UniProtKB/TrEMBL annotation:
Residues 1-28 form the signal peptide. GO terms for cellular component: membrane. It is found in: Membrane. Keywords: Membrane, Signal, Transmembrane, Transmembrane helix. It is a multi-pass membrane protein. It comes from Amazona collaria. InterPro entries: EMP70. This is Transmembrane 9 superfamily member. Pfam families: EMP70 (PF02990).
């Protein structure tokens, strides 16, 4: 009686593991890239920024789009599939557009923008700097322009209608295109309606080849940054020259030291260890004596030069004795004591 009960307990314990091992076909999403008919397809909004500076990016809803009026779904969230996506700072946000697999949507208004002066200035700044935004559907990127200005640069227009064409092959999405329409002039204190439409089509594109058009060189504009290349090239040349100079100086010193040691080894080898060491000592003594003689000669030269330079200041000029005498022209007495009459013109 105890054995069947034990078997039932074991079966109850293994049942959750068996359920985890079974493939789950009912929960298809963008991570598996398979969808069922009328299943929800999420349109993610990524970033917005100037077209001529791809490194400057902001969140899509940093512009005053009507995010507060979009139907937010808490259960929808995006996680990073790759490390590169996380390092690039990709932060996808739900667009709020209701899209279902193989279900066309006619032009539908999904939100309304209350355009005050602050929001108009934000859109005008974005249009002046040629802001463009990026979206994703099933990992396929989509790009669009925020708006455009007229030829005179006085009036600015916002694209309000997103026309999506999505291609499918079986139960997979293989292509997506965006057409921006509905150009509306930006006027303060007005309301702008944002709308979208979805059309599904079946192109002759395999799921494995759906990224081929993004790899086409004519699809993206490749800009070569010549200044960055030149700067990197000059930096490499400078570093190579600096390292080479340091290595050459080090090798030159090592070569001179090893050459001297080899000469001493040759002397020891020719004369023997005992005589070689004696010769080395004699050479060392001669070198020291030569250094002392050189120091003495230098000191004598400095002393002679110093004496020659100072001697003019030490010699005092000798004043010549005056040949003039008082009254009589004879010396040995003062003028007041001279009894000889004073000469004329004295």
């Amino acid at each position: 009686a105890g054995l069947p009960g034990l078997q039932l307990c074991a079966a109850a314990a293994l049942l959750p593991l068996l359920l985890l091992c079974l493939p789950l076909r009912g929960c298809a999403d963008e991570h598996e890239h398979t969808y069922q008919d009328k299943e929800e397809v999420v349109l993610w909004m990524n970033t917005v920024g100037p077209y001529h500076n791809r490194q400057e990016t902001y969140k899509y809803f940093s512009l005053p789009f009507c995010v507060e009026k979009i139907k937010i779904k808490i259960k929808i969230s995006h996680y990073h599939e790759t490390l590169g996506e996380a390092l690039q700072g990709v932060e996808l946000e739900f667009s709020g557009l209701d899209i279902k697999f193989k279900e066309d949507v006619m032009q539908t208004t999904y939100c309304e923008i209350d355009l005050d002066n602050g929001r108009r200035d934000a859109f005008v700044y974005a249009i002046k700097n040629h802001y463009w935004y990026q979206m994703y559907i099933d990992d396929l990127p989509i790009c669009g322009i925020v708006g455009e200005a007229d030829k005179n640069g006085e009036d600015y227009y916002l694209w309000t209608y997103k026309k999506l064409e999505i291609g499918y092959n079986g139960n997979r999405i293989v292509d997506v295109n965006l057409t921006s329409e509905g150009k509306v002039k930006l006027v303060p204190n007005t309301k702008i309606q944002m709308s979208y439409s979805v059309k599904w089509k079946k192109p002759d594109v395999k799921f494995e080849d759906r990224f081929d058009k993004y790899l086409d060189p004519s699809f993206f504009q490749h800009r070569i940054h010549w200044f960055s290349i030149f700067n990197s090239f000059m930096m490499v040349i400078f570093l190579v020259g600096l390292v080479s100079m340091i290595l050459m100086r080090t090798l030159r010193k090592d070569y001179a030291r090893y050459s001297k040691e080899e000469e001493m080894d040759d002397t020891d080898r020719d004369l023997g260890d005992k005589y070689g060491s004696e010769v080395a000592d004699m050479i060392e003594l001669d070198n020291r004596a030569a250094q002392r003689e050189t120091q003495k000669e230098g000191a004598a030269f400095v002393a002679a030069a110093l004496k020659e330079a100072v001697s003019p200041f030490l010699k005092r000029p000798v004043k010549e004795k005056s040949k003039r005498r008082y009254n009589c022209g004879k010396g040995g007495h003062f003028q007041a004591q001279c009894q000889t009459p004073r000469k004329q013109n004295w």
